[in-house]
Amino acid sequence: MDLHLPNLSGVECTARLKELLPALQIIILTVYDDTETVFQALRAGACGYLLKRSGPEKILSAITEVRQGGAPMTSEIARKLVETFREPPLPHAADLHLTRREEEILELLSQGFTNKEIAQRVSLSYDTVRWHLKEIYRKLHVRSRTEAAYKFRSSQALAGAGPGTLPLPRPPA
Asked: 148: burial class by Cβ within 10 Å (0-12, 13-18, 19+)?
């Protein structure tokens, strides 16, 4: 399937064909190699993605691979996909844009204190601590106490924040 079609994009055509014929195997063959286009095509239901500069042997091989349950891609496309799954480097503590209060709460959280204990230690209400934690999670792009503590400790260690700031074990994905 080419992505540049008259009246309809190859992504839209792929999506419609997959709705009508879910078992249909579609390989994209195009000149477009930008990451967003690749993901759009794969989300639409394509099972492979080749660039037009692929030789006839590669195209025939891709058809065979699809019939055997594979997902053929040119090496450039496979590299783009792999790179999107790499984790970005951990930010330094200063780059997290936390307020002084958020850092204080996060420090206590990473030491294992409960929300109630944190509230008592910093003279805030339990609900205010919960609000700060929601803001911390949002800023750190995390969903749990463990993830927040790990990211905070790791960013401190990267910045050389001194004793007692060893990174915590990485939380399971």
From this structure: buried
